[in-house]
């Protein structure tokens, strides 16, 4: 097994990752400055010091403090947004695995504090594929049911199957042509705007929903705008497209004589929109707002949305300053990554910087305000040389709140080749190779 993504806790004291069917929590490397800057009692600080890395060059002493076993493969996990080690009540995280409800885990002992059970229209409990905390951490949104196009919203103080009414509905029925289609694969919430971004697999799309307007109706369909994907086609857009090729000398065309309606700028805008559209067709794997989380200086106000997709060598930046259901949400920048793979390659937004990994084992840092690359660091070339030549991907990178620690998750699934088969005992050789 290998780490699938990695996340610093909001206070920067812990790291959370998933490995197959378990969650592992690590304490960050011990720093003498932490004793001077510690503004509270950690509660279990003395018991956890033995698990901290005393020597940063020693790779063998860093062990998980807590391991939480899940029934099946972990699908998604996220920290409680106001987590502080000095306040045990806030030390928790939410996670969901296959064929299991959403669990809220205690970050001190790994116990389950509460469970939230999404039920579909057949009155069957179904595990979602993604989740996130919203509205200042008071509610938990889950999505990605295979039977219903719904988003279930739970009050974290009310565990069980009772979700907060109303349910966000992505379409009238599972097979209807209205609304957002596809399996929900990613979501992100903006505290500044009060909207949630939902990304889907096949067909890939990104929609924005306003969670502040759903309290008056039993079933809410509060789409603000379709950022990208299906839903962009309509009569207005088709009419505009036809007008560019109308004859200016034809009175019925509605175009004044002497006006060149097929200018290079308009053609370039259409080509640019088409390019951004095609980069999401493989399925959206992650969306993030520039909300300036974790107290990072230079963070934005939710004016931009960032997304990445399967087999797409770019992180896309979308401009949300002029939201309208009748206008396109323009893509304004792209940031190169080595992401031509079906594996989820995650990125993180910190301040005005984008931190991302890639197949080549590099950590890339971009400044989205200037659309320039600040640095590219090769990290795992030596590790690949020590692992029988197998190339592992840097599938996630995250930086701590103090910007002094960089966490990197390295690993990818390797499949046996013909040379790994033993003609006498093929099953045993294949099993051993897969387990390695």
- CATH class category label: Mainly Beta
Q: What is the tally of helical segments? A: 6
Largest sheet: 5 strands, mixed
Widest sheet: strand ordering: 9-10-11-12-16
Average residue-wise pLDDT: 76
Helix share of residues? 10-25%
Gyration radius, rounded: 24 Å
User: CATH topology, what is it called?
Assistant: Methylamine Dehydrogenase, Chain H
Give start-end ranges of low-pLDDT stretches.
35-56, 216-221, 233-268, 294-298, 383-389
Q: Which geometry do the CA atoms define?
A: globular
Region (Disordered): 27-56, 233-263, 374-400, 415-436
Biased composition (Basic and acidic residues): 42-56
InterPro entries: SWT21/TCAB1_mRNA_Telomere, WD40/YVTN_repeat-like_dom_sf, WD40_repeat_dom_sf
Protein name: WD40 repeat-like protein
List keywords for this structure.
five-stranded mixed β-sheet, 6 helices, Methylamine Dehydrogenase, Chain H, 436 residues, four-stranded antiparallel β-sheet
Write the layout of secondary structure elements.
Elements: E1 6-8, E2 14-19, E3 22-27, H1 32-37, H2 45-48, E4 66-69, E5 74-79, E6 92-97, E7 102-106, E8 112-116, E9 130-134, E10 139-143, E11 150-155, E12 167-169, E13 183-190, E14 195-201, E15 205-210, E16 219-220, E17 223-228, H3 235-243, H4 264-278, E18 284-289, E19 304-309, E20 314-319, E21 331-336, E22 347-350, E23 353-356, E24 362-367, E25 372-378, H5 381-386, E26 394-399, E27 406-410, H6 426-435
Parallel strand pairs: 12-16
Antiparallel strand pairs: 1-2, 2-3, 3-4, 5-6, 6-7, 7-8, 9-10, 10-11, 11-12, 13-14, 14-15, 15-17, 18-19, 19-20, 20-21, 22-23, 23-24, 24-25, 26-27
């Amino acid at each position: 097994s290998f780490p699938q993504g990695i996340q610093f806790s909001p206070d920067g004291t812990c790291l959370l990752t998933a490995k197959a069917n378990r969650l592992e929590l690590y304490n960050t490397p011990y720093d003498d400055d932490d004793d001077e800057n510690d503004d509270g009692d950690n509660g279990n600080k003395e018991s956890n010091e033995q698990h901290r890395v005393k020597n940063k060059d020693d790779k063998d002493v860093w062990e998980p403090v807590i391991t939480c076993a899940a029934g099946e493969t972990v699908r998604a996990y996220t920290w409680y947004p106001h987590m502080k080690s000095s306040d045990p009540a806030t030390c928790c995280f939410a996670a969901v695995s296959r064929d299991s409800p959403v669990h809220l885990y205690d970050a001190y002992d790994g116990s389950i504090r509460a469970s939230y059970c999404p039920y579909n229209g057949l009155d069957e409990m179904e595990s979602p594929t993604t989740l996130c905390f919203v509205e200042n951490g008071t509610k938990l949104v889950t999505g990605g049911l295979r039977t219903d196009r719904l988003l279930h919203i739970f009050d974290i103080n009310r565990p069980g199957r009772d979700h907060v009414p109303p349910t966000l509905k992505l379409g009238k029925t599972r097979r209807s042509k209205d609304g957002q289609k596809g399996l929900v694969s990613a979501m992100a919430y903006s505290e500044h705007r009060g909207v949630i971004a939902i990304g889907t697999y096949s067909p890939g799309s990104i929609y924005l929903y306003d969670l502040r307007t759903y309290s008056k109706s039993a079933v809410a369909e509060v789409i603000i705008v379709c950022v990208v994907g299906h839903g962009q086609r309509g009569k207005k857009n088709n009419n505009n497209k036809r007008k560019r090729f109308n004859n200016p000398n034809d009175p019925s065309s509605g175009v004044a004589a002497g006006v060149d309606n097929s200018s290079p700028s308009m053609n370039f805008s259409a080509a640019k929109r088409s390019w951004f559209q095609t980069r999401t067709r493989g399925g959206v794997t992650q969306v993030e707002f520039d909300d300036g989380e974790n107290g990072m200086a230079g963070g934005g106000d939710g004016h931009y949305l960032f997304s990445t997709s399967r087999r797409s060598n770019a992180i896309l930046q979308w401009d949300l300053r002029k939201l309208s259901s009748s206008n396109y949400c323009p893509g304004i920048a792209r940031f190169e990554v080595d992401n031509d793979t079906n594996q989820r390659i995650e990125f993180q937004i910190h301040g005005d910087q984008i931190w991302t990994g890639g197949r080549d084992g590099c950590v890339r840092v971009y400044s989205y305000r200037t659309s320039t690359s600040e640095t590219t660091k090769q990290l795992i070339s030596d590790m690949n040389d020590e692992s029988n030549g197998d190339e592992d991907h840097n599938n996630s990178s995250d930086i701590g709140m103090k910007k002094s620690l960089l966490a990197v998750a390295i690993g990818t699934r390797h499949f046996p080749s013909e040379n790994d088969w033993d003609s006498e005992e093929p099953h045993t050789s294949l099993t051993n190779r897969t387990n390695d």
